[in-house]
Amino acid sequence: MLSRPTPPLIAPSLLAADFARLKEEVAAIEHAGADWLHLDVMDGHFVPNITFGPLVAKALRPHTKMPMDVHLMIAPADPYITAFAEAGADHISVHPESGPHLHRTLQHIRSLGKKAGVVLNPATPIETVVNVLDLTDLIMVMTVNPGFGGQAFLSSQLPKIAALRRLIDESGRDIVLQIDGGVTAKTAPAVLEAGATCLIAGTAVFGAPDYAAAIASIRDAAPALPPAFSASPGG
Ligand code: DX5
Ligand code: ZN
Question: Which numbered ligand comes closest to the C-alpha of 121?
């Protein structure tokens, strides 16, 4: 299956923002056309970097209408899920390696009324999510090793993205396929061609002088639609 006809969702990662001006940065990307706000939560244990916790999410919640897309890079994740839900997260995504019971964790996220996501590290196989698709609203493919922004895109992950596209389509489920790490206007076309529907980008947005132009350049990197999608409605 090739890419979807709709433009991809763009979720700028706050990791690359000016941390002294978080409220202004969030307002700026919302004004610039961002769809979701991606929040990278790191604990210095599961990944070798530390960022912020639920208090920062809670502080930003009143200042944006964008859904908050929380990416937990912490272990264990389970004890903190309720806090992020109460802080106003809309989506909560976990790495399967962060706890022993992925199924239970996804159930917990859903029970709090939030969308549940599974994040696959570069070495994590797609089989990890096959048996929990019924509890999964988002699948995030890491195209860098988690922990830092500004790393080089791992094109080795493209076949995995395409395989997940097929898996999601065959399931008939409404699951968002997200890509995280090294996304730029240059790497986006291959990712979209492989079937991603949401692109997370830190450096490529917050490192650019014009956020609106940066977001548009990533969104518009969509590959040409195959003939089937160009057909008239019902065709
Ligand atoms: C990495 C994070 C990503 C990353 C994206 O651990 O999950 O969200 O910050 O940043 P760029 O776009 O700079 O790779
Ligand atoms: Zn992330």
Answer: 1
CATH number for 44? 3.20.20.70
136 is in which domain, residue-wise? 9-219
Rounded CA separation 78/16 (Å): 26
Tell whether ligand 1 has an atom less than 6 A from the beta carbon of residue 12: no
Q: How sure is the predictor about 198, in pLDDT bands with cuts at 50, 70 and 90?
A: very high
Query: Which of the residues are catalytic?
Result: 40, 180
Q: Measured from the CA of 38, which atom of ligand 1 is nearest?
A: 8
Buried/exposed 11-27: b ≥16 CB within 10 Å, e otherwise: bbbbbbbeeeebeebbe
Ligand 1 atom with the shortest distance to the CA of 202: 12
Whether residue 1 lies inside any domain: the answer is no
| Mean pLDDT on 111-126 | 98
Kindly state whether residue 229 falls inside one of the protein's structural domains.
no
CA of 116 to the centre of ligand 1 (A): 19
Provide the number of structural domains found in the chain.
1
